[in-house]
Design a protein that fits this description.
The chain is mostly helical. The protein has three helices and no strands. The protein has a single domain, classed as Up-down Bundle (Methane Monooxygenase Hydroxylase, Chain G, domain 1), CATH 1.20.58. The protein starts with a helix and ends with a helix.
Length: 88
Amino acid sequence: MANSAQARKRTRQAEKRRRQNASQRSMVRTYIKRVNAAIATGDQTTAAAALTTAIPVIDGMVTKGIMHKNKAARHKSRLHAQISALAS
């Protein structure tokens, strides 16, 4: 247990930040799942629309430092490739 007031405050801040980051990560996962569900239905227009809404959310997580930029790029690239594969 933290003894100094400063350490107690840092503990409170870290817990608050952890909860907020977990919520944000969960939100991103939900958007990605929506795109995957749209891809599973086989409808390219719906999947493309879902990806269009998911991309700004993914990019926002990079800006906030919750997700690494390469991981975000990997997710976007793979989803885009899957949607493009629906056309053929």
